Structure to design on (369 residues):
């Protein structure tokens, strides 16, 4: 049975800005392949100067004791819920065992600084199967910025998927922010149709490179319409909505509307209009000013009748309640060593976790200014 966490974003994906800053060996195949968003592929009898070309990370055969390792910088820091070590197409050359550790560091550390970091196990040393997706649950409520894959003793891994919940650094969310953005903590809760591609693409970083990078529904043959329900990163007032139909030319929605609510998602009376049903054009970045001053926590995008959209951006200002939520969530999820690096005050760090009704410590609340 496929774990529910596999539907969460892959925090390591190159599509979200992930990178592989270091590996001790990549003789046969480059480390960067580990975080490619697309599934691995294989072509028989495709040889380069170092042998069969593999779509993955592959090290040379060890002739002495040791292990091979690769460090991944998560494109979006967050709480890891599960890891997939995919050995697709590695049959006689896969590692028999693997493990994963995580760390959290300030800023943008070098490979040398990463090597000296405090690493915490999130997947213990475990057996791996060849040519298979090796799935591991992760029991950790901390926010990590990097993971380190260790294989015992050598071999090839096609992909490393690190699924979890993004947690933004609230110090970077100053002024108007994209309240829907995945990297800020926005989340897709539900959608009417996910036939061609996932609605999570709507709130992913950057512009869509191709049509497949967006959300596209099947063709409707009834009188209804398709929709997506989002939970914003924090409660806020949305000022500008961007509905981007780039790359969707013969299959863009004809119209779209936006509605929102502060809470009580299941109560129809709690919802109100943010943007009326508005005509859209194919292959176009539409930007609309929203003249609504009410705070929202949830937003629903309706498209009429169906079609595809590349991105949805909802720029606005978090409310005081929303910013306090962002600060508290981030503060509670920091590993102890990272929290000490930020606050340099053991009394503050030891006060965690803060409950929702607890006032924020001054050192934390001042970050909201």
């Amino acid at each position: 049975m496929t774990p529910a966490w596999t539907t969460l974003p892959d925090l390591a994906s190159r599509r979200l800005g992930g990178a592989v800053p270091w590996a001790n060996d990549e003789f046969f195949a480059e480390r960067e392949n580990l975080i490619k968003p697309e599934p691995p592929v294989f072509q028989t009898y495709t040889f380069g100067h170092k042998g069969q070309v593999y779509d993955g990370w592959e090290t040379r055969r060890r002739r002495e004791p040791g292990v091979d390792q690769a460090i991944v910088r998560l494109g979006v820091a967050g709480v890891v819920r599960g890891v997939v070590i995919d050995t697709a197409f590695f049959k006689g050359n896969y590692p028999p065992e693997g493990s994963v550790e995580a760390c959290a560091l300030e800023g943008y550390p070098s490979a040398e600084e990463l090597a000296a970091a405090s690493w915490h196990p999130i997947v213990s040393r475990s057996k791996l199967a060849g040519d298979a997706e090796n799935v591991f649950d992760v029991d950790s409520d901390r926010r990590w910025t990097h993971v380190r894959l260790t294989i015992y003793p050598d071999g090839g891994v096609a992909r490393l998927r690190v699924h979890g919940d993004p947690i933004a650094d609230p110090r970077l969310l100053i002024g108007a922010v994209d309240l829907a953005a995945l990297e800020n903590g926005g989340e897709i809760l539900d959608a009417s149709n996910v036939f061609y591609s996932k609605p999570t693409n709507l709130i992913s970083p950057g512009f869509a490179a191709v049509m497949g990078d967006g959300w596209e529904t099947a063709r409707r043959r009834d009188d209804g319409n398709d929709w997506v329900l989002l939970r914003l990163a924090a409660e806020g007032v949305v000022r500008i909505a961007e509905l981007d139909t780039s790359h969707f030319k013969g299959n863009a929605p004809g119209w779209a509307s936006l509605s929102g609510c502060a809470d009580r998602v299941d109560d129809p009376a709690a919802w109100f209009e943010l943007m009326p049903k508005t005509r859209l054009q194919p292959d176009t970045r539409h930007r609309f000013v929203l003249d609504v001053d009410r705070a929202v926590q949830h937003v629903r995008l309706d498209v009429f009748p169906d079609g595809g959209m590349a991105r949805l951006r909802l720029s606005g200002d978090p409310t005081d309640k929303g910013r306090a939520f962002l600060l508290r969530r981030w503060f509670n999820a920091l590993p102890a060593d990272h929290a000490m690096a930020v606050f340099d005050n053991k009394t503050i760090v030891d006060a965690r976790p803060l409950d929702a009704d607890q006032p924020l410590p001054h050192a934390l609340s001042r970050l909201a200014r």
Notes: The helical segments are 111-115, 320-333, 336-343, 346-350, 362-365. DSSP finds five helices and 21 strands in the chain. Residues 126 and 308 are 41 Å apart (CA to CA). The chain has a mean pLDDT of 93.
